[in-house]
Design goal:
Number of helices: 6
Helix content: over 70%
Shape: elongated
Strand content: under 5%
Order of helices and strands: HHHHHH
Largest sheet: none
Radius of gyration: 23 Å
Distance between the termini: 71 Å
Number of strands: 0
Length: 131
């Protein structure tokens, strides 16, 4: 069994894996954490991509990991850094948005099924109204 993540990657990789650093993994994890906490049911007004991006940019962990990645990548230009971060966040939100939407649809279907199961059938209602 592999002892570390790097060993596992070497075992699994057949030439097609994109290897990322631990800092990039921490960056994505912090983005995922903020996204999950923001995109809960009941916060439907926050499902705007621009508002979610703004929330992500204001988060301390996300900005901290991004500054670490920026120094490791030798990105000195603020405009290039901002464009790259904007592009990463947009792609991440678009990619993960489908998963969140699918989960919400399943929850909605489950809730509606419970409501439908509790209602009486049309024939029963007609029979009781005739009696």
């Amino acid at each position: 069994l592999p002892q570390t993540i790097l060993e596992w990657c070497r075992i699994v990789d057949r030439g097609g894996l994109f290897h990322c650093t631990n800092e990039f993994t921490h960056f994505l994890t912090s983005v995922e954490t903020v996204t999950k906490s923001t995109m809960k049911r009941g916060n439907e007004k926050l499902f705007n991509i621009a508002l979610l991006k703004q929330t992500l940019l204001q988060d301390h962990a996300v900005s901290s990991w991004w500054s670490t990645l920026r120094t490791q990548g030798d990105i000195n230009d603020d405009k290039i850094s901002a464009d790259l971060l904007n592009s990463l966040l947009t792609d991440y939100i678009n990619l993960r948005g489908f998963a969140f939407a699918a989960r919400w649809m399943e929850m909605y279907k489950t809730e509606n099924k419970k409501v439908i199961d509790k209602t009486k059938g049309l024939r029963t209602k007609l029979q009781t109204s005739l009696d």
